[in-house]
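One thing: can you check what follows?
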Amino acid sequence: MLFNTKKLDPRYNNSSVFQIALFSLNTAAATLYMALMEYTAYFVNGIIGFGVVFTSIVLTGLRVFDGLIDPFIGYIVDRTEGKYGKFRPFMVLGNFLMAISSLLLYYCSYTIPRVFRLPVFILIYVLFVIGYTFQMLVAKAGQTVMTNNPKMRPLSTYFDSLFITSSYGGTALYAQSYLTKKYGGFQSPRLYQELTLWIVLIGGICTICAVFGIWSKDRKEYFGNSNQVTKIKVKDYFSIIKHNKPIRMLVTAASVNKFTSMVYSNITVGVIIFGIMMKNYELSGQIGLVTALPNLIVVTIGVMVAQRLGQKKAFESFTWLAIVFQIFMTFLLVFGDLPQIGLTKWNMISILFFGVFILLNGCKAVSNNIVVPMIADCSDYEVYRSGNYVPGIMGALFSLIDQVVSAFGTAFVGLVVAMIGFRYSLPQIDDKLTSSLKMVAILCYCFIPIGGWLLSLRSMRYYELDKERMREINLKNSYDDDYRENLS
């Protein structure tokens, strides 16, 4: 059922599975750079020389800036319709800007006089933010041209989950299991430089593949209702936001999820749990590789649920499951003998930990990644409601709130560890376990996610775009003029 495309309704805009998979590599490219930037706090603190609290404040401010420029870039995307399409130029330009800024950050920023390091770092990071916004905005907005078939659209969740897991997992495995041993921890700039070169190379290859994936769809006939020319002005966006309730509810739910994700996936939290509590930091890199296939099985089930019951139902169901498994994980981290956990230690605590970890992360992958094709649903709803095809502003609105809210995730972790005494340096893998460090780990990895997921579920109660509603919307928006006349 998952990849069965033989009996697709021709009244929809359909793509091949291969096209959808290739386009998802655009998300993979941006995710690789985001995985690289997860180490920025350690680089800025340990190599450039900024304090923990100051670093958290600066990174938070830059992420807020990222969100604030999203509407402007979304407006540019909506107004773009050139020789090379609406989306492809932004994919290529975004990846190029991220590559240049990453190389400047990890090769040059720490070599200049200390008095210039802060403004230079900010300029480099702003350049990175602009590139990242270009590429990730296309990841959201480009879904609208790939397909509007409710059985095909959830497939992007499958491939996004596969590539995001591979990007984060591969980066963590390489950095934390190989590079930290090669360079003796996070204190050597050569660690970050070697990692950056690989990210630039692989990210470029992924972007080229993604461009080919969207190539045949990045044309005017797939831009919403192709018979109606949309001429949107800036002032029209306020009306769109006011009357498109689904995007407001989705943004609320997803931004809370993103905040929790930024907290529980923070490198510092991983150092505390795997390095200090388990005394096995290599496991944090290895675990992604070992659990990748089982996680993908859970994601596959999630996509099949979305195909059968709709994306809203899949989001709600797997968020509830994530809450249940997170509660089990909390008990394991609080009461378990964590140093006994390991890939070669097949005891009860290891079996329980890996089992819960697989189910938990699979459910989180579904609920986190399915929001991207749901943004396309909200864009289709806007075409249905007003006739306006504005995928750029839909993705930008999502990113604006998402980035501003999630920015505080990084700051939250930095401030929490500063409150327990880590004001000038972040926790290191060889630090002694204290009750304060354990409390921070449980708070960030367990309690914050559970609370956030409950809030997101409440928002989804007011999100109307379920399976039947989307079928009505997409058939009404069909490119088949004869069918639209018959439907009316």
Notes: The domain at 18-222+236-474 is CATH 1.20.1250.20 (Growth Hormone; Chain: A;). The chain has one domain: 18-222+236-474. The longest helix spans residues 155-183.
